Amino acid sequence: xxxxxSIGRFMKSSFTLFLLFFVLCPLFAAFEVKNGDKxxxxxxxxxxxxxxxxxxxxxxxxxxxxxxxxxxxxxxxxAGVRGHDSNDMLARVERDVIRKKPQWMxxxxxxxxxxxxxxxxxxxxxxxxxxxxxxxxKAQSAGIRVVILTASMIYEGAGNKYNTDLKKYNDFLRTLAxxxxxxxxxxxxxxxxxxxxxxLSRGKRVKLTYDGVHMNxxxxxxxxSVILETFGVPAEKVQQYRKEWEKSxxxxxxxxxxxxxxxxxxxxxxxxxxxxxxxxLKEWITELK
Amino acid sequence: xxKTVLIVFLAFATLSLFAEVVVKNGEKxxxxxxxxxxxxxxxxxxxxxxxxxxDGLKQSGVTAQMIPAGISGHKSNxxxxxxDKDVISKKPQWMxxxxxxxxxxxxxxxxALPDYKKNxxxxxxKAQSAGIKVVIMTxxxxxxxxxxxxNTTLKAYNDFLRTLAxxxxxxxxxxxxxxxxxxxxxxLSVIKGNRLTYDGVHMNxxxxxxxxSVILETFGVPAEKIQQFRKxxxxxxxxxxVSLPLNHEMNLLLHTKAAEKKMSIEQYIRSVLFSxx
Lengths: 289, 277
Description:
The structure holds 2 protein chains of 2 kinds. Chain A folds into 2 domains: about 30-250, Rossmann fold (3-Layer(aba) Sandwich), CATH 3.40.50.1110; about 255-289, no CATH class. Chain A is built from 13 helices and 6 strands. Chain A has helices at about 5-15, 15-30, 45-50, 60-70, 85-95, 110-115, 125-140, 160-180, 185-195, 215-230, 235-250, 260-270, 275-289, and strands spanning about 40-45, 75-80, 105-110, 145-150, 185, 250-260. Chain A has a 5-stranded parallel β-sheet with strand order 2-1-3-4-5, with helices on both faces. The radius of gyration of chain A is 22 Å and the shape is globular. Chain A starts with a helix and ends with a helix. Chain B folds into 2 domains: about 25-235, 3-Layer(aba) Sandwich (Rossmann fold); about 245-275, no CATH class. In chain B, about 50% of the residues lie in helices and about 10% in strands. Chain B is built from 12 helices and 6 strands. Chain B has a 5-stranded parallel β-sheet, sandwiched between helices. Chain B is globular, with a radius of gyration of 21 Å. The model of chain B has no long low-confidence stretch (mean pLDDT about 95). Chains A and B meet through helix 11, strand 6, helix 12 and helix 13 of A and helix 10, strand 6, helix 11 and helix 12 of B. Strand 6 of chain A pairs antiparallel with strand 6 of chain B.
């Protein structure tokens, strides 16, 4: 640990240098992604939803937005298919990724391999390792740079049976990233940290998913933040982007069940204002401030 | 004049008292169908039509049991393949058949009318020869616009069902006719989007109530009684869901305000939304 005193001394003696460094650092940060690069996102339902903009603004769009704000125009290749595990992804990496000739492949795989085991499917650990290694090797030998994402939590309780089983899958991914010289975006690690946060409600955990597995708006922002940092966007910049995303994109969708009387009342109010019910509720929420 | 009124009134009163509900105490009713029927057995977010039918019978003094047999995405060929296992082997007294939406909606992957006719006839024959009484339901609308292509195609399928019901002496629950009536009713004209479904095809709370009403009428429960049940359901169960997108700031603000009042965020929103403003 650096003590406050030593920081003070350091700052005093080299304040100008420090300031200069801070100002120039984001400018000269070595971005891994170059202008015009194509980035393929291979994954499961989480990645599928990452490619949509409604109801939540998906992480793929946020990554592209973050790169754009950093001065890099990149394109996405959407390759997330709902329900897919490592067997499925190995079977289609050629068609869905390599054939599209991207410079980058982000691989997000593991949730269904583990979760599926409790649903009569799933992929055991030995097979998973083989599948992932082949996916990475196939991409690399086609000249594609690979970023490995650790698999996100399965239900937001770190100690449950799914997450306990998932741990060795993710540990393997971390080791493999080193071995194969891939960049690593440790989604799981960050997710655990954020889930334990208590920003929103007294004592209650912060929610990053809407159903325990699939990301809500906040979850997508968390994923995009980790990926941008992995690409070399400075953390302070990413923080700044995130603040802007938080203003413009929904974090959660609150579903409210309405009985006939309530529902029709709202419809009448909206039609009096000559707007849709959705628009009415949006305006109503803003007025609450 | 007074006398006549009295007689008419008495006749009316006795009629509804003795109106014959065809389902008897202790009978089992199988509901063979697709996703609409599968969702008909759930209770959230909407109270499904299977539960409402059982409830309406109960309020009419008949205790019946449901055998849910709805599977999402299923067409007539798939229902034919599983009618033995999912319905006949369970020995119900009644089978309600709701089939046709996917046969039409899936287009090229659907089931063409000649095959549909064969499949449906075979399903009805199988059930009837096992001594099961069959109620044929017409298929509900595919998106709430009577003039669109799936609905115009569906018309021939439903016309066949109406003819078949007569031929095979089945009761007919004409869901589609009632749905068209309700979708275009004056009462619902204030609702801009979907009125009986949440996505154009799958029923919302009101859609399930509509289906249950038609079925109960088919079973011989008097219309006035059903109106009364329906009013009760409308007070108890939700008709629709709305979703409020909240950005970080609003989410934080509402959480704080709700916590101050010791309410859940939904309770809080409801309290402000309906505070007579």
